[in-house]
Amino acid sequence: MATETIVPFDKALAAYDPAMGLEVHVELNTNSKMFCGCPTVFGGEPNTQVCPTCLGLPGAMPVVNAKAVESAIRIGLALNCEIAEWCRFARKNYFYPDMPKNFQTSQYDEPIAFEGYMDVEVEGETFRVDIERAHMEEDTGKSTHVGGATGRIQGADYSLVDYNRAGIPLIEIVTKPILGAGEKAPLVAKAYVAQLRDLIVALGVSDARMDQGSIRADVNLSLAPKGSDVLGTRSETKNVNSLRSVERAVRFEIGRHAGILNEGGKVVQETRHFHEDTGETTSGREKSDAEDYRYFPEPDLVPVAPSREWVEELRGTLPENPTAKKTRLQAEYGFTDLEMRDVWAAGALPLIEATVVAGTTPQAARKWWVADLLRRANDAGVELAEVGVTPAQVAAVQALVDAKTINDKLARQVFDGLIAGEGTPEEIIEKRGLALVSDDGPLIAAIDDALAAQPDIADKIRGGNMGAIGAIMGAVMKATRGQADAGRARELILEKLGL
User: Fold this and answer.
1) N or C: which end of the chain has fewer CB within 10 A?
2) Tell me: the pLDDT tens digits for 399-452?
């Protein structure tokens, strides 16, 4: 296979205009599958969450999951879509090695939601991403290719199929071509998927875990000569499962397409695999057009016809738009743009909001969640919300700091205890002996020892060098295992020195 020429990003954009299309698949968090009653719990033993319907056995009849329909409508409304008064399912036919009935029940020309939009801001510029459709379908099973070096079917010794995922409810959200982004195209793609994920989480219809595949993106990209109004041939990079990878996939495909076009070649309409380790894509299969799937109406399912009353009732359940909420809370909390960027990147805003409601200040809540607890979550390899500390506990620890029962250093030990399940903050302070030493007796003894051990430092302080007091404070803190009340200790040091 000939080595592909990859044109540098800036040179590619000097000659070509990129057009993108994003297809985002969202696994819904319903208790049962799209067309049967099998559970949808992630990580079950292979082929234990299956039944005749999702295994495609003869005579098994599907039934639509009402909760999935409700979630689809709420997603459509949140994306400013029109909701169909009448829609139906179709069979999408082609070879599915991991779909036992060998077709996917999806929606084709009659989706439940269509003609919407989402505004995305990138580096101070707003891009409107038009939504073509959001339709309901079912997920496929999962193939594991054993042997070989790549984990793909090529070169594998054999393949195993787990049908637990087959039939899990999916919403596929398809954009119209995104034009005019130019050099910001990779960032626009990343920002759109990030904002869509935040919206999905706010709606409560999916956990939107990209690392577990419950939300994944297909990145379509084409190039056209600068100033041309004709779209080029597209490639589709499948199942990209991180925000960083969405950006990298767009950037790489721009360079790859430009290399082909510069050499007079033709871009093949195909699917591509994205490689996390290299940031490159490789060929999958030639991409079919819609007519190749031989869609036809699903004969075993009745049409879905949501009443206008139900649609409006669901509209009333929509949460505040996450982007608008972010702007509002930043103003209310007084966070700088940099502080809010860090909060947003950490996924900490809901936790900070709950901590403020529990009774602490926004800055204190931000300090603990973004500075201390985020590090612990990263070290443990878990999401911030799963670190083992609740917003109410963070507020309680900060209240103890404010009351001078403990200081920030000791508070970190309290968080250690909370994560270890040692009880309430107060119980942990008592068990570990963490309370600040504020009684004058022990403090004076520690100060006397520190001054006697460092007479030259004491002379410097008497001479007006107040910066030198830090050495005495350090000795006092060491003697009291960091539990001295710093404010009271400083007062006593100055008293001792006649200042």
Assistant:
1) N
2) 998 888 888 888 998 999 999 999 999 999 888 877 765 555 566 666 666 677
Domain boundaries, the chain: 9-314, 322-432, 440-496
What one-character-per-residue DSSP string does 271-322 give?
EEEEETTTTEEEEEEEPPPGGGG--EE-TTSPPB---HHHHHHHHTTPPPPH
Q: What does the alpha-carbon distance between residue 326 and residue 340 come to, in Å, rounded to a whole number?
A: 8
Among 48-52, 84-88, 208-212, 322-326, name the one with the lowest average pLDDT.
208-212
| Integer Cα distance of 273 and 96 in angstroms | 17
Across the chain, what does the average pLDDT equal? Answer: 88
Task: Name the strand (E) or helix (H) holding 252.
Answer: helix 243-262
CA distances from 421 to 58, 385, 425, 428 (A): 52, 16, 10, 9
Report which residue type is found at 116. G
Q: What integer is the mean pLDDT of 324-335? A: 94
Write the CA distances from 170 to 33, 214, 250, integer angstroms: 9, 9, 24
Greatest mean pLDDT among 42-46, 118-122, 174-178 lies in: 174-178
Q: Which pLDDT does position 28 carry in this prediction?
A: 96
Other Cβ atoms closer than 10 A to 287: 17
Q: How many residues does this entry show for the chain? A: 499
What's the token pair of residue 74?
Answer: 């709420």
- Residue 282 tokens read as 């490789």
Nearest-angstrom CA–CA distance, 471 and 476: 9
- 3-class secondary structure for 104-172? EEECCCCCCEEEEEEEEEECCEEEEEEEEEEEEEECCCEEEEECCCCCCCCCCCEEEEECCCCCCEEEE
Q: Which fold has domain 440-496?
A: Arc Repressor Mutant, subunit A (1.10.10)
Q: Tell me the two tokens of residue 417.
A: 């205890």
